[in-house]
Amino acid sequence: MKVKFQQLFTDKVQQIGYWGNSEDLHIWIETASTTEKKWFNYSFQKNQITEIPYPFDFKNQYNFIQASGKIAYFSELLQGKNPVVNQVLAIDLSNGKTSQQVMKLEKTFEINTPNHYAEGQEYFKEFQEFFEKKFNEQIGKGIDYYEGEDQLVFSYYIYKNAWVNILKVCNSSFDILWKDQLDENDLIGKITFQIVANHLIYIKNKHQLIVLAHE
């Protein structure tokens, strides 16, 4: 595995999503501070990142649902104790402008997400025993696991004066191809990585986008 692209953002990464098609694939990224939100676009083809004009009111919450081509759909949440969806808006991610275009949602590329096993759930004990025997690591809290044709990807938690989230990529012989620390946090993340177009994508320390490719 090798780093194809990495970008450190000033503000925390709040959301990511994917748009385009298998020949021209992109990652949409939203960052946020206490005073503003920003949108960015990473192009797999150009291997570069650019900023997209932010189209919404900063004070409201808009969640990425899905994209069809360059048109992405966002749910606007009404703030309150139990936020509810107010409306769904379409945005052209190539320019950040509101779109009236109604697109049929079709899958043009695969997004592979890991299976999540929390401590106490079925199979987690087997993962604990395996990690202690194979890597001499005592894992806890939970684990994200993905099994591909030629790689196994684990995102798990070990205690080192604090709970640390570790990402590990192995081949079928369990040789370690890649290892990184994602975060140090008592909270458990879900879907801490994704496999898209033969690339491994994850966010490190809530501020850094990393795209890995096979060597």
Question: What does this entry look like structurally?
Answer:
It is a single chain. The protein is mainly beta. It folds into 2 domains: 90 residues; 86 residues, no CATH class. The chain is 6% helix and 56% strand. The protein contains 1 helix and 18 strands. The strands form 4 sheets. It has a 5-stranded antiparallel beta sheet with strand order 1-18-17-16-10, with no helix packed on it. Strands 11-12-13-14-15 form a 5-stranded antiparallel beta sheet. It has a 4-stranded antiparallel beta sheet with strand order 2-3-4-5, with no helix packed on it. It is globular. The chain starts with a strand and ends with a strand. The model has no long low-confidence stretch (mean pLDDT 92).
Write the layout of secondary structure elements.
Elements: E1 2-8, E2 12-21, E3 24-32, E4 37-43, E5 48-52, E6 61-68, E7 71-78, E8 84-92, E9 97-98, E10 111-112, E11 115-118, H1 124-135, E12 139-147, E13 152-159, E14 163-170, E15 176-184, E16 193-196, E17 199-204, E18 208-213
Antiparallel strand pairs: 1-18, 2-3, 3-4, 4-5, 6-7, 7-8, 8-9, 10-16, 11-12, 12-13, 13-14, 14-15, 16-17, 17-18
